[in-house]
Amino acid sequence: MNKHYASAAEAVADICDGATVMIGGFGGSGAPIELIHALIDAGPKHLTVVNNNAGNGHVGLAAMIEQGMVDKLICSFPKSKDPTAFSERYLAGRIELELAPQGTLAERIRAGGAGIPAFYTPTAYGTELGEGKPVAEFDGRPYLQERWLKADYALIKAELGDPYGNLTYRLAARNFSPLMAMAAGQTIAQVGRLVDAGGIEPEAVVTPGIFVNRLVEIADPAQEEVLNQAEARYP
Amino acid sequence: MNKHYASAAEAVADICDGATVMIGGFGGSGAPIELIHALIDAGPKHLTVVNNNAGNGHVGLAAMIEQGMVDKLICSFPKSKDPTAFSERYLAGRIELELAPQGTLAERIRAGGAGIPAFYTPTAYGTELGEGKPVAEFDGRPYLQERWLKADYALIKAELGDPYGNLTYRLAARNFSPLMAMAAGQTIAQVGRLVDAGGIEPEAVVTPGIFVNRLVEIADPAQEEVLNQAEARYP
Amino acid sequence: MNVRGQLNQEQIAWRAAQDIEDGQYVNLGIGFPEKVAAYTVKGREPIFHTENGVLGFGRAPAKGEEDWDLINAGKKAITLKPGAAFFDHATSFAMIRGGHLDVAILGALQVASNGDLANWRVGSKGVPAVGGAMDLVNGAKRVAVLTDHVARDGAPKLVERCTFPLTGVGCVTRIYTSLAVIDVDIPAARFVLREKLPHLSMDDLQFVTGAKLHVEGEVGNLEVPELS
Amino acid sequence: MNVRGQLNQEQIAWRAAQDIEDGQYVNLGIGFPEKVAAYTVKGREPIFHTENGVLGFGRAPAKGEEDWDLINAGKKAITLKPGAAFFDHATSFAMIRGGHLDVAILGALQVASNGDLANWRVGSKGVPAVGGAMDLVNGAKRVAVLTDHVARDGAPKLVERCTFPLTGVGCVTRIYTSLAVIDVDIPAARFVLREKLPHLSMDDLQFVTGAKLHVEGEVGNLEVPELS
């Protein structure tokens, strides 16, 4: 067993038009920039993207949106320092937005990975984001029913990976990635360092390899925030 | 902030009659023997206990049951090499059993900790363990609705603990403990070693301290399996 | 509005910090509420939580020392205190939704006397963005709001019923404003005045408040050090 | 029943092991199904999962070398292979329920031609215990059963409808018995015979089977090495 791919380009090559793609990260922390840029090179269209945000500046997810690859975005917070890539298209009616409260978004993704088709949450009850959702009362309190969220692919960034796909994450770059790894048909991880089997202590594994299909080693990965401070653009 | 208690006796002293107590472990792996024995010394009655099993031999949970402290057990597998403590009482109608499939039990506990009052699972649909539970269809497949499970107390065993309550676990002794820590009003952890703040790498924390209320250091804790091989009894 | 001695944001944050107890787990909303951390009462050690999966973070790093994998929910660089922990987003919101946070402090566009909060969008225009606010108001044991007493156009922010889109229903129990500290009696749907600026009359305060201010027992003096 | 050349448990396990592919994630039920691991086909490396939170475990340790924090779902001591991982019970069953396991292999009291499985209790007496079986049969991508072809009392275990309490409905797709390999065509509710002991006649096999055995194309010879 070896899930190693030689390049980001190879790892994302089969993502085709109309796919649903989860992208890890919270803002730039944990954003898999190199995988996203490889996907921009590949150029599939009509994607549905799941991410907490909607990109910042003109690299990563923002650049994907600028390339017109994204038909629909499912996220909690489509604002950033430089949100024009998304906001211009949104306000022009050229991209669809499904807005979800952040905790509901996270739990829907986990539910997709855990085989839980629906669950109840108090979040958004009585608000416009709860409109149209089934309501049920438990122990005298009203809750909304929310559905799982799954994807064809997940693109995530990890720190260490071993040939079995076991992953660890760096600092707060963990965020959505362990959940998205569970919820996608094919999970593609860029890792800062690929280690041998046994190179990650079994107790230190954060994402067990069963949730990971493909690994690409990207040493010294780019940070979205640093790219934006340098006013970078992709391509 | 310091959640440290000087002894197991002090840590469990306020657990009173009628409490619901989750107990970590899978069989003997992760069973917090010293906390359980301190609770036997304290002697509250009419407890509801949540554990994957029903004890083995005459120590730990089995000894609690033999002492007549447990009115009801919620578990998935009340069998073991030496199950007489539970089985004799159960067959005599002196202890109530709520049997739950293991994954449903785990997810109900996690749901209790995560503020999810109910969720749907395919598990047990069409079986006698699903009887009486609400059924709903999602994407053409039938699912059962299951409710969260919470407790007044959780007794768990960890490897390292710091003063904030951050925990790591040893090998497969992790099992139910991280979930139970989330689902209890007061979570009491016996740790093999209490380290200073910073003694656990932030990335290596398995149970964040917010889920843990009390810590007791028990170096060289007993293993239920080893006690049973020595035909130990408590008290 | 131009009330003499009206508190600035730093002072409102200072007042809110006085109510945070030692050892409490606290989430501070992006922006104004973040200021509360700077005024932690000496001898108390609250543990700060941020939605993106960190417990136990400290101050911002010095300029040039930022690590952009280590940020808070506002995407600002942070540092860690000893005893910090990282976790994924599902666990982070399990902490919130599961009632493990002691306090959440948020900003407000409007708060109603029934505890309803509106703080995520003004109307139906522009790009909507909600983040974790709806989870926080439904999950934390205590939800408090920091706000100027009135909006920039002079409209009351403390109202009988929110007109902006809601963030949560019946969730806010205490409001720290530039003029007063007000509790929300959610079951009775009424504001209860706890403290006001010493020189401010009840009539003047009521005049800039969009719902009746009830009094139960003594009204304290809202006294805050000079801060800027 | 006493059929010449009837497979023993080791041989049934060997046959099941031939269908496990390289890199598949596999959960083996407690007891008889655990034997499958010993017959892993050379050159293939399945990764074994156990409900209590381990992926990538290996053989049992030598006697005296047991670490009782490192056990499998049957509470037997295990060892780890390089690349193993530990995780909590919610994650372990997320793997199961979420469809991440390629294969689950379980024992059976009865299997019906509609794919229903009964394997957790015989009736309403005694102490009931279910463990993870109901999750496994509803979650794994492929659910297979290992069993003697008939019960000790000679009653068929492959039946039209289970009479024992169900573990799951319409879940089993392949059955490895002491006499045959049989697929379950769940939508059509029928058994399809794939392989049988070479010298066993169709009539004799049908005689000890509680539901009709259909044939589609060639029936292979169930040929297994001597094992004990």
Architecture blueprint of SSEs:
The complex is a heterotetramer, with two copies of chain A (235 residues) and two copies of chain C (228 residues).
Chain A: H1 8-12, E1 20-23, H2 33-42, E2 47-50, H3 60-66, E3 70-75, H4 84-91, E4 96-99, H5 102-114, E5 118-121, E6 135-138, E7 141-147, E8 151-161, E9 167-168, H6 177-183, E10 184-194, E11 214-217, H7 224-229
Parallel strand pairs in A: 1-2, 1-8, 2-3, 3-4, 8-10, 10-11
Antiparallel strand pairs in A: 5-7, 6-7, 8-9
Helix pairs in contact in A: 2-3, 3-4, 5-6
Chain C: H1 9-17, E1 25-28, E2 47-50, E3 54-57, E4 80-86, H2 89-97, E5 103-107, E6 110-112, E7 117-118, H3 133-139, E8 142-147, E9 158-159, E10 174-177, E11 180-185, E12 190-196, H4 202-207, E13 213-221
Parallel strand pairs in C: 1-2, 1-5, 5-8, 6-9, 8-10, 12-13
Antiparallel strand pairs in C: 2-3, 3-4, 6-7, 10-11, 11-12
Written overview of the protein:
Chains A, B: Belongs to the 3-oxoacid CoA-transferase subunit A family. Chains A, B: InterPro entries: 3-oxoacid_CoA-transf_A, CoA_trans_fam_I, CoA_transf_BS, NagB/RpiA_transferase-like. Chains A, B: Pfam families: CoA_trans. The complex is a heterotetramer, with two copies of chain A (235 residues) and two copies of chain C (228 residues). With 235 residues, chain A is α/β, with parallel strands linked by helices. Chain A has one domain: Glutaconate Coenzyme A-transferase, CATH 3.40.1080.10. In chain A, 24% of the residues lie in helices and 26% in strands. Chain A contains seven helices and eleven strands. In chain A, the strands form two sheets. In chain A, strands 1, 2, 3, 4, 8, 9, 10 and 11 form an eight-stranded mixed beta sheet that branches. Chain A has a three-stranded antiparallel beta sheet with strand order 5-7-6. In chain A, helix 2 (33-42) packs parallel to helix 3. In chain A, 62% of the residues are buried. Chain C is α/β, with parallel strands linked by helices. Chain C has a single domain (9-221), classed as Glutaconate Coenzyme A-transferase. Helices cover 14% and strands 28% of the residues of chain C. Chain C has four helices and 13 strands. In chain C, the strands form two sheets. Chain C has a ten-stranded mixed beta sheet. A three-stranded mixed beta sheet of chain C has the order 7-6-9, with no helix packed on it. The longest helix of chain C is centred in the first third of the chain and has 9 residues, at 9-17. The model of chain C has no long low-confidence stretch (mean pLDDT 96). The interface between A and C is large, with 53 and 39 residues.
